[in-house]
Design goal:
140 residues, alpha/beta, Nucleotidyltransferase, domain 5, five-stranded mixed sheet, globular
Length: 140
């Protein structure tokens, strides 16, 4: 396991970015926020999360198709990760996000939440799935 400290995960999308955070021990991942991808204040919002949670690592969902090939959104995700690495002195790890949104949608539906009414919830729940996968990878 990596050193103790919070980690923040991002599920990057063209419209929204789901954000999740874990406790300092890396046990419990929780939804944090949903940001707008095109918001001019995006970097400032992330900086506020960094100031508040003092993360030791960022995880970003890597768009990989079920076939294992990189998805069309990979260049946008890489641009987002470049912004993170150039703006913050925090390691950024890409995490396979193949089923993160599908998993989040299913879990919300099972909880009685309609996916159409809860797109922003789905984005932050997908970030939780990315964070949980990143934490699981650390434990290997």
């Amino acid at each position: 396991m990596s050193r103790i400290g919070r980690r923040i995960a991002f599920d990057y999308g063209d419209v929204r970015i789901g954000v999740a955070v874990c406790d300092p021990d890396g046990i419990l991942a929780t939804p944090l926020a949903t940001l707008q991808s095109k918001d001019p204040s995006l970097k400032r919002f992330i900086a506020e999360f960094v100031d508040e949670y003092e993360p030791v690592k960022f995880y970003v969902g890597q768009p990989i198709l079920l076939s294992g090939e990189e998805g069309a959104a990979v260049s946008k995700v890489l641009a987002f990760t470049q912004m993170l690495t150039s703006s913050f002195d925090i390691p950024v790890i890409l995490v396979d996000e193949r089923l993160s949104t599908v998993s989040a949608t299913k879990q919300l539906r099972e909880s009685g939440i309609n996916a159409k009414d809860a797109r922003s919830i789905i984005d932050s729940a997908a970030a939780v799935a990315i964070l949980e996968q990143g934490l699981a990878n650390e434990r290997k």
